[in-house]
Design a protein that fits this description.
- By secondary structure, the chain is of the alpha+beta class.
- It folds into 2 domains: about 5-145, Jelly Rolls (Sandwich); about 145-190.
- It is about 50% helix and about 20% strand.
- The chain is built from 9 helices and 8 strands.
- The chain has helices at about 5-10, 15-25, 80-85, 110-115, 120-145, 150-160, 160-165, 170-175, 180-190; strands at about 30, 35-40, 45-55, 55-60, 65-75, 80, 95, 100-105.
- The strands form 2 sheets. Strands 1-8-3-6 form a 4-stranded antiparallel sheet. Strands 2-7-4-5 form a 4-stranded antiparallel sheet.
- Helix 8 (about 170-175) packs across helix 9.
- InterPro entries: cNMP-bd_dom, cNMP-bd_dom_sf, RmlC-like_jellyroll.
- This is Crp/Fnr family transcriptional regulator.
- It comes from Pontibacter burrus.
């Protein structure tokens, strides 16, 4: 169950077999069925989830019941409401499975234990957070400066697996577009081919 987790960890920060066993003792496996929640808005986020198999999304719902997708996570990625996880305040995101999923959870207490006793884990988390921040900054710049067609092209080139596995209305939401606008963009692009 932990193969991909340790493969990705070792790509960033190599672990000894002993360190791997030490970490494994604190990890929690979890399976979700498609559409099942990992986290609901208002609950306290108690885990960071690493996706071994499947796809998830984090999103908010506004007062008009419109969903706004914040993040997707597929195999090898992590997902959480980091604010809630770190502060123990109520979550602002919902996280649910877009496909049946197998996850590896790192609880807050395990996270704290690793930070104290395993410097390699701290390095790994720093690299994950740095990568996430860079991706967020690129997404923000893209949404502010690129035309819809350029944004969609960038998304499909950067995340081809997600583009194939996630419904178009969720991709539109992630990009800050209406489904109708994304449909027009895709039609225009197809007509040019």
């Amino acid at each position: 169950m932990y193969e991909l987790f340790f493969q990705k960890f070792n790509e960033k920060v190599p672990l000894t077999p002993e360190e791997q066993e030490q970490i494994k003792a604190y990890l929690t496996p979890k399976k979700l069925r498609k559409r099942q929640y990992l986290l609901q808005e208002g609950d306290i986020c108690k885990s960071i989830a690493f996706v071994e198999k499947g796809a998830l999304r984090a999103y908010t719902v506004d007062e008009n019941m419109n969903e706004h997708v914040i993040q997707f996570a597929i195999e090898g990625w992590t997902i959480s409401d980091l604010f809630s996880y770190l502060t123990a305040e109520p979550a602002t995101y919902n996280i649910d499975a877009l496909e049946d999923a197998e996850l590896v959870l790192i609880t807050r207490s395990a996270h704290e234990e690793f930070l104290k006793n395993l410097p390699k884990y701290e390095t790994y988390i720093r690299l994950l957070i740095t990568g996430a921040y860079i991706a967020l900054q690129r997404r923000l710049t893209s949404n502010l400066s690129l035309l819809a067609e350029e944004r969609y092209t960038s998304f499909t080139e950067t995340y081809p697996d997600i583009a194939q596995r996630v419904p178009q209305h969720m991709i539109a939401s992630y990009m800050g577009l209406t489904p109708e606008t994304l449909s027009r963009v895709r039609k225009k692009m197809a007509d040019r081919r």
